[in-house]
Specification:
15 helices; 18% strand; 374 residues; homodimer; eight-stranded parallel β-sheet; globular; three-stranded antiparallel β-sheet; alpha/beta
């Protein structure tokens, strides 16, 4: 595996938090990092230049969606996903598993893989570990995720055991078609539901196979937040210190901070982008629903403490007007702000880790919200 | 009237075409010019910075829409429309008449003005010439349009006579509340349907009142294109040489070129922006419907001759993918390209006028389309 490396730059003295750096052929990623989600080969409403402006160093793209439309072969033929979407920094692709397993009735799992029907046209497909890797490589992903099953919560222990073991066998098959010598990095995904011993077993088996990075899957699937934190706290230290750790599909700003405290390096979530399109905006003093009547004539920037393009140039009243008028720019500006907020939060976390005042930073983060909410 | 001026820089020797410049307190506008339409205080999908990047020197905003939502008083209180929408170049506002008269059953015309019901909530309003000017001034328009009735086509001569005379009286009332000494310029609008003598009468009466610029209204309302051209050809020379001339709501690239030939300086139309959102794109070789299957794997830029941000960075295949996937970026990129195309066309027209080869330019324009369509 060439070009991919993780350097642990600093280990926080009073928590599991780590400041690190991932190097890839397409550039570096400072960790802890947040990856904006570009499901269909575009981060909804964001030009690639805007993503760079707010400091995004990597984006996530969805294998399931791009496989169905426009198809990985087409993208490969056009020079790969980077060229297709005009993004020259690293791309991580998920394995397609999460989307397939979300289809419910429309899919069936066997040892071979997951048979499913397209949500677009009902056409039948069989997604296997081998095909998942093939698709991700055709897209040109810098980081490929192993094909796994995201176990729902709650689930019977028997099912969790079987599914976790199958995911491990699938991870092995992914490793086989994407050996360490490949240009793209391969990440294994720890499953095990909410069962500590199965999480441990999954971690150990994946470590034995050996991956360039490790993710925690099956979190943020409806469990209590405290349980999610417990799972992170227990599982993350089971992973190798010298590899990046990624908690998939998480989460709120608070979740990110708590993930970092517990040793996580990478996050992705549709929350900042999806919330933006629904007019829910993240600020230093908590969430704001911009459609509320109180913002009708509010000339203040959304977050007076924020330095983003939106907060420097527009009022809450204008953002409310765009949202209530269903204007395209509502999604564009709201997404820009929310992603900036997430990138800025991660930048501040990294800075605090470098300065050795991460514990203080975390306290202040919560204090600011409490004082302003009350 | 302070700060507003029109300079005729060059008169084409073999047509009515003119190269000119409008000066306002908020900057200059090189004519002939095309004004992107920002109906609700935003040109749909375009950041103000992008509008500047493509060379837009003025935008149009709609009085009717902004009056109903969020309201001109709110915008005034927040510093005016320029600050509200983060656009510091000139803004022209229409009078609201066109939208009100489009409401059909929901409006009633009297000498006083037009009574109508809001398309948003059914609330009742009376838009008068005085209120229209008041709204436009509250918005902070650099160019205010007189309140008039846009006569449908076809219409009875008797109705056209009455309506045109009423529009003249309304124009007089607008002038009264917005005298020449005002900071904002006021444009009169020539009506008269498709009746030459009434167009002449309207022009003469408006000239007598005296305005900083003159527009042709009531065109592009369903009449044959050749009839529209005839009306321009007859009516534009009736207007004072030393004032800008504006044909409202026109049109296609061909219409713009033919308007310039006949002496028009200003245009506005929703066509480039609305078509963009429907996947219909303007190119040097004619219109392209980007959803067509032939573009599925087409790696070429939309228009290989175009230097816009979209054509420099994306393929037809990607634009098709965004459009078929209903992505926000489809509207953003398509709008960017179409508005660039319009701005570029006007820039080339101005250049040809400066170079004295406008007749050749016009021939080439049509030749290129014919050769590539066949």
């Amino acid at each position: 595996m060439s070009g991919f490396r993780y350097d642990l730059l600093q280990q926080d003295s009073s928590s599991q938090a780590r400041r690190g750096r991932i190097s890839t052929q397409r550039g570096e990623i400072d960790t802890p990092t947040f990856m904006p989600v570009g499901t269909q080969g575009t981060v909804k409403g964001m030009l690639p230049e805007a993503l760079k402006e707010i400091g995004a160093q990597i984006v996530l793209a969805n294998t399931y969606h791009l496989y169905l439309r426009p198809g990985q072969k087409l993208i490969q033929q056009l020079g790969g996903l980077h060229q297709f979407m005009h993004w020259d920094r690293p791309i991580l692709t998920d394995s397609g598993g999460f989307q397939v397993f979300s289809l419910g009735e429309l899919r069936k799992i066997t040892e071979e893989g997951a048979a499913f029907q397209s949500h677009l046209d009902g056409s039948k497909h069989l997604l296997t570990p081998e095909l998942s890797v093939e698709i991700q490589l055709a897209l040109g992903a810098d980081i490929v995720m192993a094909f796994d099953e995201c176990i729902p919560h709650p689930a019977e222990r028997g099912y969790i055991v079987d599914s976790t073991n199958r995911s491990t066998r699938w991870a092995q098959r992914c490793r086989k078609v994407l050996p360490e010598s490949s240009e793209s990095a391969l990440f294994g995904i720890v499953q095990g539901g909410m069962e500590l011993d199965l999480r441990r077993q999954s971690s150990e088996q994946l470590r034995e196979i050996g991956f360039e990075g490790y993710a925690l899957g099956g979190l943020s699937v409806g469990e209590e937040t405290s349980l999610m934190y417990d799972m992170m706290e227990y599982s993350l230290p089971l992973l190798p210190v010298g590899r990046p750790r990624y908690v998939m599909g998480v989460g709120t700003p608070e979740n990110l901070l708590e993930g970092v405290v517990r040793g996580c390096d990478m996050f992705d979530c549709v929350m900042p982008t999806r919330n933006a399109r629904n007019g829910v905006l993240f600020t230093s003093f908590g969430k704001v629903s911009i459609k509320r009547a109180q913002y009708r004539d509010d000339e203040q920037p959304l977050d007076p403490d924020c330095q983003c393009y939106v907060c420097r140039n527009y009022s809450r009243a204008y953002l409310r007007h765009l949202y209530t008028s269903k204007e395209i720019l509502a999604s564009v500006l709201n997404t820009h702000h929310n992603l900036y907020y997430y990138q800025q939060l991660m930048a501040e976390i990294r800075q605090a880790l470098e300065n050795g005042n991460f514990t203080e930073f975390r306290k202040d983060f919560y204090k600011k919200r409490e004082s302003l909410v009350s």
